Structure formats: C-alpha cells, structure tokens
Amino acid sequence: STSECLHTLSPSRLTKTVLSRFSLTVCDIRRWKSTRIEPDNIDLLLENLEQSNGLSLQSDENGGCNKKSVILVEHRNLNPETELKRYFGARAVLGDQRPRQRNRHFHRSTWMTSPKDSWPRFSRPGVSMTLLESKNGIQCFTFEHSRDYQQVQFKFLDAVESMDPNNIVALLQLNPYHIDSLLQLSDVCRIQEDQEMARDLIERALYSFECAFHPLFSLTSGTSRLDYLRPENRAFYLALYKHMVFLEKRGCPRTALEYCKLILSLDPDLDPLCMLLLVDFLMLRSREYKSLLQLYQDWEEHRNLSQLPNFAFSCALCRFHLSQQEDLDPKEAENQKKLADQMLQSALIMFPGVLMPLLDLCTVQPDATVTSHCFFGPKSQIGQPPALAELTALYVGRTYALWKEAAIMLWLEESVKEVLRRVDSKDSFVEECENKRKQRYQSAPRNIHRHVLLSEIKEATSTLPLDVTAQPVMGFDLLPPLDSVISYTRPERQHVGASNESTLSLFFRSLLPNFNLQEDEMGVARAGQELNQEVNRLMVAMRDMLANIRFQEPPRDDDPYRDDEEWD
C-alpha cells in the first residue's frame, strides 16, 4: 500500500530505488524533486516515470508498434480494487479500510497481493531470484531454491507420493510459505468448494514469490523472462494462472486479463501455458475490443492466429460488438458489420466443427436445413483431426455463454445460411480450407495439452490423446517439458509398504494400473467406504490449522525497520 511504501522508503532511499528502476533524465529528476509527493500519488509517480522513459510502449525499427506492446502490463490493473472501483465506486469498495490500515503490522509493499493480518508471520522461505543474462534489452531470470528449501521440497514430493493430504498439511504447518504445498492444498480446498481458502492460499504463494523478486525484475516492462524449462519457475506460472481464474470467477475479467498478459509476457515466444488460447476470451469479457483486434493484427503475421479457432471466431464477434455501439458513425458501423460478416463466414468455413457443439451448449435448436447438411452435420465433428478437435472443444466449452445473446444468434444464423450457399455453389475457399484442415492439426504441442488440463473444461479434456491421459498428472507441475533444465535432483527414497499407508492413500493407490487387486482387496473396500469421512475430517482440520497458525515472533529491537537493508 501507499502508506507502507512511505514507511519503507525514506526520500533519499526512494530516490535511489526509483533511479535503479528507471533511467531518469536530469529534467525528470528536477521535476520529481520539485514536486511534493503525496501518499496517494506514489503509485502514479512511478507509472508516469515508466511511461516517460518508454517502458510502457516499445517501438520497432520501422517506428511502428512493437508486436509485444499489446501485452504490456500496468501495475494498477493488477489490483482487482481498480476494477471494482469502476463498477461500484471507491467508497463502496474501500469502506472503512483506511482507518483500519493504520493499526496493521508492517509489511513490505507488493503489487500482486496484499498481505493479510490472518497470515502467518512472513520469513524468507528460501526462494530467491537470479539474473541469468541480459541481451538485446531482454533480461532472463530464474528462481532458485536454497539448500533448506530443497529439503522441504523433497519432503513435499514424499508427501505427494504418499497420496495422503494430511502429510502436506503437516508440512505446511511447519513451512507456511512453501509454495508447492500452498498450490496443492489450494486445489484440495477448491475441490471441496472452499473457494475463499483456496484463493487465500494462492495469494500467499504469490506474495512469497514477489518478496523474492530480483531488483531488476519488472512486471510491467515486457522485457523480463522466466524459462519454463526450469522447475523452480513453473510454480510462479501456475500461481499466476490460478489467481487469474479466481479473479475471472469473482467478476473481475479486466484484472484477470492483466494477469493473462503478464503470464504471456514472461515467455511470449514459447507461451508454455498457451495463453493465446485464453486472452481473446478475457478481452471479450472485459470489452477490450480494440485491444483484441490490435493483438490479432500485430501477431497474425508471425503466429498465424487465424489458424486458431478461438481467434477466428472471437475476432468476428469483436467486430460485431463494435458495429453495435450506439456512438459509432453509421458508415463506420456498417463497415464493422460487413467485416464481422466476412470474418464469421471465414471462421465457419475453416472450422465447421464449432457450430453444432456451440448451438448445443447454447440450447438452440438449429434449422433442419443446417442439421441435414453434410457440411455442418456429424461428419464435421467426426472427421476433425485430433488437435483441431481439442482446440474446438476448448473454445466452445469456454466461450459459449458469450454467444447466447439474441442479436448474436440472429447474426450467426444469417452467416450460417450464407456459408451453406457458398458451399453449395462450390466456392473455392471451401475446398482450400478443407485441404488446410487435412494437412494441419494432426497433433497438438505439449503446451496446448497443458492448457487444456489447466482449463478443466470437460468438453476439452475428453479430447486429450492417450499418451497424455495415460501418464500421471501432478497438479503442482502439469506435463513438465521433456527437455527440463534440472538444477538439483531428489535423493532416492525407500519404498514404503502398504501396511503403513493411510486409508486415503490406499484408496488412491487402488486407482493405479499396477495395483494388486487380490492382495489389497479388503483394504480397498474399507478405504472406499471411509474415503468421504476422512476427506471431510481432513478439510475441517486443515481449515482450523490454517486459520489459527501463529508463530512466536522473535523479540524486536527499538528499530522496527531493521531489515531496511534488503531494499538497497
């Protein structure tokens, strides 16, 4: 918060911090020194300095907009309160928050999450960040684990292999900021529909990460990279993704979009979580129509976004929304509508397998001429290449609610009729698209499978290939890259016999393909009967433990800010 920032940084130290983050000109420094800094203006000052030094917008050699500029992040948009204030006003959002903040304990200022008084006292868990290289204006960073943290990580992996969540709870009680434990237990809480606790655990993980940031690491410059090949970095990606999902479900799509752009900016070339399959949805949800079209225009040449069903349909829908704006010039509205028609027809011809599942989820009964036509009939789904079926199911399952509006359905109906007319008239574009579908989309890359697993959209997960579904999937490290860069290895551990397993562990082990049915038949039956009871006991105990963790604070000296040297 702003008040905490003032306590943490004296004017001289604030000057030093700002200068280390931004290359200021002499005029900038004079202007800053001559301006009185009010507490509420610190954040605005830092953002203005970013913009004045070209960090908010990058240009290419030709003077045009850089292809990555549309994914740059703004600090203020990472805070859901910014979006909620636009909806409900500052008074409704903040309430009596300011007076209460005066009595809060000292915390370091962070951008992504605000520490809560109910959290355990923060102590560095052993995670740090290192700058690997800086080249052509791009800085590559990586998180690192201390020796003590590595030992905790080994214990966590042992707890995961035991398939007993009690062991993870016990580990988190001793290490309240161990990141993978927080992520894993967040999933358990979410499955048990304890959304508040699940969200709180993710926020705690993000806070732990942000406290470990390198001084040069920036969330907003668009030039900081994290390699997903390194296991230490993957938890940060996953924590950001899960936090983004919670924000979208809470009705903060604009804030969720900012986190989506942040994830994409960490590695825009490889896109390990395949955020390009999601960013269009969030832009439509937050009504960032021009940003979506700008992204499509900037990235189409080098990423072929038109070959992704989500961009083909979402950009058409985006044009339609623009054409319906009341303050638009009539000629411009007509032009936007014409472009929307063309884009939707092209999308339907290229991806005919989208229509029927989309109408089905929208509970719309199509005309008999559509269902009986071979172009949109069952053949359009059955004949799809595997990767295209995966992309189609993902898009439909995620965005069908955006198509339910009556005006949109009428527009879709008109476009479908025009497409069938073009198909019957042997339009050459129809044959061209059919050839493209046959040649492409045979197999999806690993990052698309990873995204589908993260999405938990049942229509999409059912299309995953056998080589993905047959392997064990760990929630804290979904489909790790096959060429991972390993910095430390886990020591071998002895196998623990079944006699030492808990009821819950025995039940889960029965789901594995190598389980001996005759040997453990009685134990599994007993485990199945007691599963719900034990899970419920675990959740009650875990919520009670997490809500009441308190650590004895070490004695403080007279200077409550003795750790200020960490900011240097």
From TrEMBL:
| Xref: InterPro entries | TCF25/Rqc1, TPR-like_helical_dom_sf
Q: Which Gene Ontology terms of cellular component type are present?
A: RQC complex
Entries under Gene3D superfamilies matching the protein: Tetratricopeptide repeat domain
- In terms of superkingdom, the source organism counts as Eukaryota
- UniProt-listed PANTHER family: NULP1-RELATED, RIBOSOME QUALITY CONTROL COMPLEX SUBUNIT TCF25
Output this protein's name.
Answer: Transcription factor 25
